[in-house]
Amino acid sequence: MMGKVVCSVFFLCTAVFLSVSCRSQVTITRELRNDGYHRNLVSNIDIYSTSETYPCSLLLVEYLPSNVYVDSDQLIRLAAKTGLVSFLNTSVNIEAIANSEKATPFKAFLYPLEQDGPKITRSVELPIHLRYQAASSGGGYKNVNIGQPSLFSRCAQDNSDPTAKKFDLPCSANDRSLCKWTKLDAAISPATLTASVPVGNTDLGLYVSIVSYILLYGATFLIAKTIYYKKY
């Protein structure tokens, strides 16, 4: 009798473990592509789950720092080219320099193609731009860190844990009304992405000014000389 009870408990625990494992097998691998001020923030999403009723809508929320900006017009062109629809939670000033009052943190809401089966892979690529840094004594480089995103799911029939917390988030990029989304427990690597941005050296200001004036007056003289000889 005791053996049957032990076996029953064992199989019950195994079933619960597998169910939880299926729900939590989500990995996101991230990288920054390209160099310089214009980068692509790439998130490769792998999901394996057998406990949902498909299709399931997906929402990736990026939390971006003030040292970064995203061009809304570029997002529109991206949607037409790749089908990835997205929007920003606020208006972003693309001309502000870093650490100014007009440069503020913001969120990007990205909607990959829906999950239509138990195992899917989605690649989400967001064009981002690093803001110019104010010059400082000594110059050098400054690191801009981008933290982890959040991944949410909304299925045709909600089979998630009844105790799981729901989040009120925009239903889609075209429908900004709020829907109930379930946050997926994802293993994200690396935890932080870092990009280095050059910083101007104010100690070289005098030399830069002298060279700039020489080039300016030299170019002006050559243009005036060319016009004079062509005229006569």
TrEMBL record:
<comment type="similarity">
    <text>Belongs to the PIGX family.</text>
</comment>
<keyword id="KW-1133">Transmembrane helix</keyword>
<keyword id="KW-0732">Signal</keyword>
<dbReference type="GO" id="GO:0006506">
    <property type="term" value="P:GPI anchor biosynthetic process"/>
</dbReference>
<comment type="pathway">
    <text>Glycolipid biosynthesis; glycosylphosphatidylinositol-anchor biosynthesis.</text>
</comment>
<keyword id="KW-0325">Glycoprotein</keyword>
<keyword id="KW-0812">Transmembrane</keyword>
<keyword id="KW-0337">GPI-anchor biosynthesis</keyword>
<keyword id="KW-0472">Membrane</keyword>
<dbReference type="InterPro" id="IPR040039">
    <property type="entry name" value="PIGX"/>
</dbReference>
<feature type="transmembrane region" description="Helical">
    <location>
        <begin position="204"/>
        <end position="224"/>
    </location>
</feature>
<comment type="function">
    <text>Stabilizing subunit of the glycosylphosphatidylinositol-mannosyltransferase I complex which catalyzes the transfer of the first mannose, via an alpha-1,4 bond from a dolichol-phosphate-mannose (Dol-P-Man) to the glucosaminyl acyl phosphatidylinositol (GlcN-(acyl)PI) intermediate to generate alpha-D-Man-(1-&gt;4)-alpha-D-GlcN-(1-&gt;6)-(1-radyl,2-acyl-sn-glycero-3-phospho)-2-acyl-inositol and participates in the sixth step of the glycosylphosphatidylinositol-anchor biosynthesis. Probably acts by stabilizing the mannosyltransferase PIGM.</text>
</comment>
<protein>
    <recommendedName>
        <fullName>Phosphatidylinositol-glycan biosynthesis class X protein</fullName>
    </recommendedName>
</protein>
<dbReference type="Pfam" id="PF08320">
    <property type="entry name" value="PIG-X"/>
</dbReference>
<keyword id="KW-0256">Endoplasmic reticulum</keyword>
<feature type="signal peptide">
    <location>
        <begin position="1"/>
        <end position="22"/>
    </location>
</feature>
<dbReference type="GO" id="GO:0005789">
    <property type="term" value="C:endoplasmic reticulum membrane"/>
</dbReference>
<dbReference type="InterPro" id="IPR013233">
    <property type="entry name" value="PIG-X/PBN1"/>
</dbReference>
